[in-house]
Amino acid sequence: MSSGAKNLLILGILSTIIAVGTTGVSLAIYHNTGDIYLDRSRPGFLPDEEEIEQDESIVDDGYKFADHGEITDEILREYLEKLELEIKAVDAYEKPFDAEALSDEKLGL
Amino acid sequence: MKKIFAVISILALSVVSVSAFAANEKKISADKCTEIKTSLVDLQHADSRARVYLGRYYEIILTKYIVPLNMRLVENSLSEQSLIDNQNQFKDVRQSFVDDYISYQKSLESLVAMNCEEDSSGFYDKLVQTRTERQTVAQDIVRLRNLMKKQVEMVTKIMGKIK
After folding, report:
1. Between B142 and B2, where is the model more confident?
2. What is the CA radius of gyration of chain B?
3. In 3D, which of B37, B24, B29, B61 has the Cα closest to residue B112?
4. Among B95, B115, B118, B124, which residue's beta carbon has the most beta carbons within 10 A?
5. What is the pTM of this model?
6. How many helices (H) and strands (E) does chain B have?
7. CB A92 within 8 A of CB A109
8. Residues of chain B found within 8 Å of residue A67, distances taken between Cβ atoms
9. CB contact under 8 A, B131 and A80
10. Do A95 and B135 touch, CB atoms closer than 8 A?
C-alpha cells in the first residue's frame, strides 16, 4: 500500500471514530439533561390524529395584550375575560398526573 | 382452657404473619408483567400529551398575560409588588414542573425497563418511588393553578383603583 493510501485509510478511520464519539456524547447529553423526555418527535410520541384535530380546532382570535399603552378598567376587563378563557382551557384537561393511573388497582397488582 | 387459648393465639399470629409476608411479596406472573408494561407505556404517552398541552398554556399565560401586564403597569406607574412576586413565582413553579416531569419520566422509564417477573419486589419499590414523583408533578400543577387564580384576583383589585 502506498503512503498516500495509508494516510487516507488512517484519515477515514479517525474521522469515523470522531463522528461516533461526538454522536455518542450528543446522545448522552440529550438523555442526561432530560431533553429526550420533552421531545415529541421520537417514535411512539408523535401527536396522534385526535391531538392534531384538537390543535386545529383552537381558534386564535388575535387578542394580544400589549406590554405598553394606557391602562383602563375596560382594558383590564377584557384582559381578565381572555385570561379566564385560558385558565378554563387548562382546567379542561381531565385529571392530569392523577394518582389513580399508577395505583395497584389500575395496574392489576 | 389455657392450652386452647395458646393454640388459638399461635394460629392467629401465624395468619397475620403470612398475610404481612404475602403483602410484601407481590409475585407477578409473566402475563401480568406484560400487561403492566403495556399500561405503563400507554401512560408514558398520555403523560407526554398532558405535559405538552399544559406546558403550552402555561407559556401563553406567562408570556402573553402576566409579563406584559406588569410591564404596562410599570409604564403607567401602577406597578404592584404582589403581581411581580406572582410573576416570579409562576416562572419558578413552571420550571419546577418541567424539572419534576423529567425526573418522573426517568423513573417511569426505569420502571418500564425492569423485569417485573424476576424482580417483583424491586419493581414494586420502584413503582412506589415513581408514584411519589408523579404526585410531585401533580402538586406543581395545583400550585400553578393557584397562581393563575391569584393573578385574576389581583387584577380585579387593581381595577377598583384605576380612575
Report:
1. B142
2. 26
3. B37
4. B124
5. 0.80
6. 5, 0
7. no
8. 67-68, 71-72
9. no
10. no
Question: How large is the average pLDDT for residues A39-67?
Answer: 71
Interface ipTM: 0.79
- Pick the residue of A72, A97, A104, A105 with the most B CBs within 10 A to test the interface with B by mutation: A97
Exposed, middle or buried: residue B28 (CB in 10 Å: 0-12, 13-18, 19+)? buried
Q: Which chain B residues have a beta carbon less than 8 Å from that of A73?
A: 159, 162
Q: Give the pLDDT band of residue A53 (cuts 50, 70, 90).
A: low
Answer for the pair A86, B61: CB distance below 8 angstroms, yes or no.
Answer: yes
Q: Report CA Rg, chain A.
A: 27
Residues of A in contact with B159 (CB under 8 A): 73, 76-77
In this complex, is the C-beta atom of A88 within 8 Å of any C-beta atom belonging to chain B?
A: no
**Residue closest to B62 by CA, chosen among A7, A28, A87:** A87
The angle, 0 to 180 degrees and rounded to 10, between the axes of the packed helices B81-113 and B67-75 is 170
CA distances from B15 to A101, B23, B121 (A): 32, 12, 21
Given an 8 Å threshold on Cβ–Cβ distance, is A83 in contact with B61?
yes
